[in-house]
Design goal:
The protein is of the alpha/beta class. Helix content is 37%, strand content 23%. It has 2 domains: 2-113, Enolase-like, N-terminal domain (Enolase-like, domain 1, 2-Layer Sandwich), CATH 3.30.390; 118-340, TIM Barrel (Alpha-Beta Barrel). The protein contains 12 helices and 15 strands. Strand 6 (179-183), helix 7 (190-202) and strand 7 form a beta-alpha-beta unit. It is globular and about 60 Å long. Bound molecules: magnesium ion (MG). Residues 183, 185, 209-210, 234, 254 line the site of magnesium ion (MG).
Length: 342
């Protein structure tokens, strides 16, 4: 197998604002990975995020280290072994390793001419609806955005800003029938979170994602035992080893390929969550159709989906899984089912 990689710059239509230390950006610096074997090319994507300790520069450096391991592996059918070897060659760098594994699965699917979800024994029609996410863009921009999506079935609202209740009033007045989820992105303290969640019940919110800072596990135990709404771990749940301690502190986990190291790790997290009675959400970062279609391939296993990351892009350089008013259509093409746009 041969491996190559290059920066993949993704510009979003509107600047994204979330509650993490004033995070605001309009270009996302991802990395495209290609694996080639016998004239067939598999595509993968890394979507590094600074709060998880990675960026485009660290991903490119990690791929320099991982490339000889991939070349030496030779055979694309030794996925389990190769994933172990990648983990041994380099600790952490989960987003870089996820991209290699994604490309490997794409390659395998193309070699045997089957979509990955078929190879995993999953049916495309079992994919649940995905939410569409609205960001902290100020009430005026939010109002404009809400007008476009008011009749979409599932919305996720980023809270943790200075005017959360104003935002919720606006959401419910514009989208009275939508299922509404809230993501606080670790913005609240325990008592403030409980107070907010009690208020959010009146807005018929379905669940609240990551109300407290990632490491506040004690705070989550306190909050979980009192919360009238389900709470889902995102920043508190990166990889498989995090899952057991979240039981009794959260009702579910948000798995992202870029956090956990790829599809194989994600499948293990899903199995662990199910054994512990936790709900499973699959999420994304700002990503092209490559990463989103990879997550889409295992989406029939999830209870909740947040796979809208490419709808935010000015232009997605790839075509794959379709997002239409929260309904996802998995590609019928082999592997991840992704090809360059245009
Ligand atoms: Mg989140």
């Amino acid at each position: 197998m041969e491996i190559s990689y290059e920066p993949l710059e993704l510009r979003v239509r509107n600047t994204l604002n979330i509650a993490h230390e004033g995070f605001s950006d309009d270009v996302f610096h991802n990395v495209l990975v290609r694996l080639e074997h016998e004239g067939v090319t598999g595509l993968g994507e890394s979507a590094p995020f600074f709060i998880y300790g990675e960026n485009q520069r660290t991903v490119l450096a990690a791929l320099e280290t991982l490339a000889p391991v991939v070349r030496k592996a030779g055979d694309p059918w030794r996925a389990e072994r190769l994933v172990e070897e990648l983990d041994r060659a380099l600790g952490r760098n989960w987003s870089a390793k996820a991209a290699v594994e994604m490309a490997l699965y794409d390659l395998q699917g193309k070699l045997c001419e089957k979509p990955l979800h078929c190879m995993l024994g999953l049916r495309a029609k079992d994919t649940p609806l995905s939410n569409f996410t609205l960001y902290l863009d100020g009430t005026e921009a939010l109002h404009d955005q809400l007008r476009l999506v008011a009749d979409w079935p599932v919305l996720k609202i980023k809270l943790g800003g200075p005017n959360d209740l104003e935002v919720m009033d606006l959401v419910r007045s514009e989208a009275p029938r939508a299922v509404v989820r809230v993501d606080a992105n670790a913005a609240w303290e325990p008592r403030q979170a409980l107070e907010m969640i009690r208020i959010l019940v009146d807005y018929e919110v379905e669940f609240v994602e990551q109300p407290l800072p990632a490491g506040d596990i004690d705070g989550m135990k306190w909050l979980h035992s009192r919360s009238p709404l389900p709470v889902i771990a995102d920043e508190s749940c990166l990889r498989l080893e995090d899952v057991p301690q979240l039981c009794g502190r959260f009702d579910g986990i948000n798995i992202k390929l870029t956090k956990c190291g790829g599809i194989r790790h994600a499948l293990k997290m899903i199995a662990c969550a199910r054994a512990l009675g936790l709900k499973v959400m699959l999420g994304c970062m700002v990503e092209s159709s490559i990463s989103l279609s990879a997550a889409g391939q295992i989406s029939p296993l999830a209870d909740y989906l947040d796979l809208d990351g490419n709808t935010l892009l000015e232009q997605d350089p790839f075509v794959g899984m379709k997002f239409d008013r929260c309904r996802l259509t998995l590609p019928a093409e082999p592997g991840l089912g992704v090809r360059p746009a245009g």
